[in-house]
Amino acid sequence: MLAWAIYLSFAGALAEALLPKGRAALSRWLALAVAVAGLAVAVAGYWAGIGQGRVTIVDLAWVPSMGIHFLLAADGISRVLVLLTGIAAVAGVLFSWNIELRTNEFFAFFLALIGGVYGVFLSFDFFLLFVFYEIAIVPKYFLIAIWGSTRREYAAMKLAIYSFAGSAMVLIGLLAAYTTAGSHSTTLDALAHAGLPLSFQFWCFPLVFVGFAILAGMWPFHTWAPTGHVAAPTAASMLLAGVVMKLGAYGCLRVAIGLFPRGLDPWGFSLLGIASWRDVFALLAVIGIVYGALVALAQTDFKFVIGYSSVSHMGFVLLGLMTLNQIGMTGAVLQMFSHGIIAGLLFAIVGRIVYDRTHTRQFAELEKMHLAKRLPFAAWAFVVAGVASMGLPGFSGFVAELQVLVGAWQVNPWWVAAAGVGIVVGVAYTWRALQKAFFADVLPTPNEHPRTGWPKFEPITWPEVTGVALLGATSLIVGLWPSILLDTIEPAVKALLAGGVQ
Amino acid sequence: MSGLATGFPILTLLTVLPLAGAAVALCSGKHARGVALITTLASLALALVVWAEWTRFPVIGGYGFIEQHTWAPSLAIEYHLGVDGLSALMLVLSAIVTLMSVDAAHRVHHQPELYFGLVLVLESGLFGSFTALNFFHWFLFWELSLIPAFFLIKLWGGARRGPAATQFFVYTMAGSVALLVAFLAIFVATGSMDFGQLAFLASTGALEPMVTAHLGPVMLWLAIGVLAGFAVKVPMFPFHTWLPAAYAEAPSPVTMLLTGAMSKMGVYGLLRIAIPIFGHQISQIRTPLLVLAVATVVMGAWAAAAQKDLKRIFAYSSVNHLGYCLLAIFALAVPAAGTAAQTSQAMALNGVILQMFNHGITAAALFWFVAMMQQRTGGHRGIDQFGGLRKPAPVLTGLMGIALFSSLGLPGLNGFVGEFLIFRGVFSLAWVAATVSVLGLLVTATVILTVIQKVFWGPVANHCEGFPDLHHNERMALIPVIGLMFLVGLVPSLIVDSVNPTVLNLLAHWRF
Predict the structure, then answer these.
(1) Of A370, A439, A478, A487, which to mutate for an interface test with B (greatest number of B Cβ within 10 Å)?
(2) Residue B158: in which H helix or E strand, if any?
(3) Which residue segment(s) compose the domain that A477 sits in?
(4) Which of these, B181, B154, B11, lies nearest to B81 by C-alpha position?
(5) Does A398 map to a domain?
C-alpha cells in the first residue's frame, strides 16, 4: 500500500508538468490533493503496520542479469519516515500557496522530490535506493536555482556538487561491495548476509557513511546546508531540512551501518583516544552539535540561524546512530522525525510568514518592526516552534534528544557533556533570535509611530494557519505521547541491531 | 490503570483546569480577568479539597490521590501523580497567590487576554510540578511555568524588562539543563525516573553503588548539578543575581507570583527531589552549603538595607526569608543520632514548610501593596518618594503595617512561627550557622522598620497629598489575606497538624 505514495507523487508531478500555464490555482489545489493523498497513504500504511515487522510491498525482477530487484518494503523506521515525508509534503504545499512564478513547474519539481524521498525510504534494493536518491537531487537544484533568493545559483550549485560527490562515494562503495560479495543480487539483504571481510568493511564503511552523512549535514561537510537552506524557497528549505537531510541520515543507518556493521569495530590501535570509525564519527557529530549551535548564535540573518540549527540538531541524529544501542538509535530515528517537523515549522515561519511580508531577514531591520505586535501569529508560532526546537519537554525534540543522550551516556559520558553544552547554546540562540526578530524593544522611528499606525502587512492566510497547526500539533502530540512512534521504531531498531550491529 | 485505583483523577483536573481557563481567557478579550478570577477561585476550591481530603483515600508510600499510568515505557516515563501534606499545602499556596495576583492585576489594559492566559498557564505549571512524582512529568511542568513567566516580565514589565527577562530565563534554563543531565545519569544507572523508587534506592544506600558502577564516581557531581538547578530557582547565594532585576522589572502582580509561588518550586524541589535522592551527598558537603545558606540569609538582609526602591527592598528581603528555608534544610542533613536530634530535625522541617507558606502569603501581599502605591502615585516606588502616608491613607497604613510586621516575624502573625521553629531546630543542629543567621533577623527588622518609618511617618510627601486610601473592593480583597496572617500566626496548628505526619514520614525515610 505504501508504494502508492511514490506512484501518486510522480503521477502528480507529471500532471503538474503537463498543466497549461497560467492556471496557478488549479496547480495549487492539485498539488495539495496529491500531497494529502500521499499523507493519507502514509498514515494508512503506518496504521496497518503497527505491530508488524518488515513487510515486503513489491518485489519484481528488474534487471535479472545483474540481480537488480524492484524491491519495495517497509519496516518501522521506513514507516515513521514515510509519515514524516507525508506531513512535510502537505505543509510544504500549504506554505507555497503564494508562489506565482511558473506555479505548475514549481509543484512538478516539488512532487518529484517528494516521490524520490518516499522511494528512498521504501527501497530495499541498493540500486533502486540509489536511483530514487539521485531523483531527489535534481529537483532540489531547480527549486533553488529558479525560485530561490540570496545567491541562489551559487547555493544550488554547491548543494548539487556536494550531493553528487556524496552519491559518488556511495556508489563506489556499493559497487565494491557488490563485486566483493560476489552475489548476484543487489538487495540490501543479500549484501548484508554476504559476510563481507573485515578489512573490506573497514574502508568501505567510512566511504559510504561519509557519502550519506554529507547530506545529513555532518561537520565538516555541512557547509552546503546553511547556504542551501537560506537560498531555497520556503517549501524547499522545509523539505531540505525536513526530509532531505533525513535521506542522508537514513542512508547512514540503513545502508552504511546495515551493510557494513563490522566497519564500526575497533581498529586494534588507538590514536589520541580514538580507536574506531565509531569514535571518529561520534566526535564529528558532537563537534557538529556544538559548532552548529555556536555559529547559529552569531548570525545576523534570521534564516541562517535556523540553517545552522539544523546542523546542530542533525548532530544528535548522527550521535544517536553511533551509540549503537537500542535507546540511542531509537532516539536518532525519533530525532529525524522530530527535527523534520520542527525545522519545517521554523523555516515556514521565517521564510514564508515573516520574510514574504517584511522582505528582510536581517535582525537589525526586523528589530525595528515590532513584529510581536504587527504579526502576533508569527511571533507566537515561533515561540512554540522555538521552545520545541530548544528541546523543552512536551515537544517531540525533548524525548528524541533525551534518548540520544541516554544512549550516549551508556557509551561515553563526555559525549553527553559536550552535547549538553550544545543544548544550552541552543536555548541561547533560539531565544536570541526570538527576541531580536519579534520582541525587540527598539523605540519606533518617527515615520512608524504606533499612533499613526504601521503600514499593514498582508493578513495571515488560511494555508499558513493550517500548516502551522499541522506541524505544531504533530510535534506536541509526539512529545506528549511518544509511544505513538516509539512502539513502531523500537522493534525495527531491535531487528537491525540483532542483524549484526553490535 | 496500573497502581491503585483512586477513582476520580482530582489532581489531573486541578492541573488541567487553569489550562482550560487559559484557553477561554485567550478568546474572551476584555473579560479575560473575569475568566481568570473564576478559574483561580475554582482552582483554590479544588486545592482546598485536596488539602483537606488527601488522607481520606488510600495513602501509599505517604502519598494520597495517586494516579499512575504508563506513558513512555522505554524511558521509564510514567504519568504518576500524588500529594502529601507538603505538596497539598503548596497547591493551596499556589492557588491563593495566583488568586491574589489576578485580583491585583485590574489595570492590565494592554492585551489582557494574553496576560491572564499566561498567568493561568503559569498556575497550571505550578500545580503540575507540585503533584508530579516522575521526573519527566515534573520537568515538563517545571519548564512550562518558565515560558509564561518570561513573557509576563518581557511584555508587561518596566523600563529594563528585556535584559531582566532574558537574565531570568537564561539562569533558570542553565539550572534546568544541570538538572536534566543529572537525572539522565540517574536513569542510565537505575532505569528509573520515579522519585519514589529513586528515593527508596537512596534510602537503602543502593543508589550510589549503582551510579558508580555505571558511570564512575560522579554521584557527588550529580548532587551538585541538581542543587544548582534548585539553587537558581530559590534562589541561593551566589545564584541569586537574576532575582532583583526580575522582581523589580516585572509588573507587581507578576512579582507576587514569582516570589509567592515560583520560588517555592525551588524549595519544594530540594525537599521532594534533592534531599530524598541525594541526601547522603548533601550531608557530605553540608558545611559549604550551610555557609552559602547563611550568606543568603545575611547578605540578602544587608542588600535589602542598601536599596532605595521598595520592590528591590522586598526582593532582597525575599532572598533573606527563603535563606532560612535553605539554612534549615541543609542543617537537618545530618545522620540522625539520638531522639533529641530527630526532634530538632522535625522542628526544622516543620518550620521550613510553614515558612514556605507564610513567606508566600506575606511577600505576595507586600508586592500587592507596592502595586497599589504605584497606581496611586503614577508609578513611584522609591522609599524616599513617600512619607506620612498614615494621614491620607490610614487603612492602607494599618493593613500594610500588619503585612510588614508579619514579614519582620512578629509573634502573633504568621511569619513568626516558621522562623521560630527553624531557629529552634537549627540551633541544636548547627549552632554556628544559626548564630550568624540571627544577624539576618536583626538587619531584616531594621529594614522593615525603616520602610515603616519612611513611608508611613513624618511629614506628608509632596505627591502623597490627596493619596486615596484603599477603596471598598481593595479592602474586601485584602481582609482575607490579612486574616490568614493572623489565623496562621495564632493557630499554627491548623497547618502544623496537617503537615507534621508528612514531616515525620519524610524524615523516617531520608538517609543522610
Answers:
(1) A439
(2) none
(3) 3-444+461-498
(4) B11
(5) yes
Residue A452 lies in a domain: no
DSSP one-letter code for A240: I
**Virtual CA dihedral for A138, A141, A143, A145, nearest 10 degrees?**
-150
What is the enclosing helix (H) or strand (E) of B66? strand B64-72
A327 interaction partners in chain B (CB closer than 8 Å): 74-75
ipTM over 0.85: no
Q: pLDDT averaged over chain A?
A: 87
Chain B: give the shortest CA distance to residue A184, in Å.
40
Backbone torsion region of residue A151, taken as left when φ is above 0, otherwise alpha when ψ lies between -120 and 50, otherwise beta: left
- Cβ <8 Å between B215 and A327: no
Nearest by Cα to A286 from A164, A163, A417, A179 = A417
Residues of B in contact with A402 (CB under 8 A): 75, 180, 184
Q: Which amino acid is at A179?
A: T
* Closest Cα in chain B to A330: B74
A269-308 burial, b if ≥16 CB within 10 A, otherwise e? eeeeeeebbbbbbbbbbbbbbbbbbbbbbebebbbbbbbb
pLDDT at B57: 77
Report if residue A166 sits inside a domain: yes
Give residue B90's identity as a one-letter amino acid code.
Answer: M
Is B147–A383 a contact, with Cβ atoms under 8 angstroms apart?
yes
Give tens-digit pLDDT for A307-328: 999 999 999 999 999 998 999 9
User: Which residue in B461, B304, B467 sits closest to B386, CA to CA?
Assistant: B461
Tens of pLDDT, residue by residue over B69-87, are 888 887 888 888 889 989 9
Element housing A55 (H / E): strand A55-63
Element at A77 (helix H, strand E)? helix A76-94
pTM check: above 0.90: no
Q: Report which residue type is found at B137.
A: H
Q: In 3D, which of A455, A312, A432 has the Cα closest to residue A363?
A: A432
CA distance A173 to A204: 6
Whole-number percent of chain A with pLDDT over 90: 33
Is-contact A26 A19, C-beta < 8 A? yes
* Matching residue, cell 535589602: B304
Count of structural domains within chain A: 1
Q: Note whether residue A395 is domain-resident.
A: yes
Cell numbers found for residue B423: 531557629
**CB of B306 within 8 Å of any CB in chain A?**
no
